[in-house]
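Entry details:
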Amino acid sequence: MIKKILVFFLLCTTFCDYNIAQSLDTLKFKPYSTQKLSSYIAPAVFITYGVISLSGDNFIRKLDYTTNNELTEDFPPF
């Protein structure tokens, strides 16, 4: 008798439509094509700044070194 109840329960839960959680979910999926382009601008700027400052002896690298020297004069542990 218990076997029959367990089999019935398993079949019922497997084949019945229990998508209540998915239909009540308030979070809607947004495809990647609808994301705003402006959300990529700031990371792109910072990545470009980092790559340029690592390559060669240029203005950005000199600016970084002078800023570091000025900060260590006023705040030695910094």
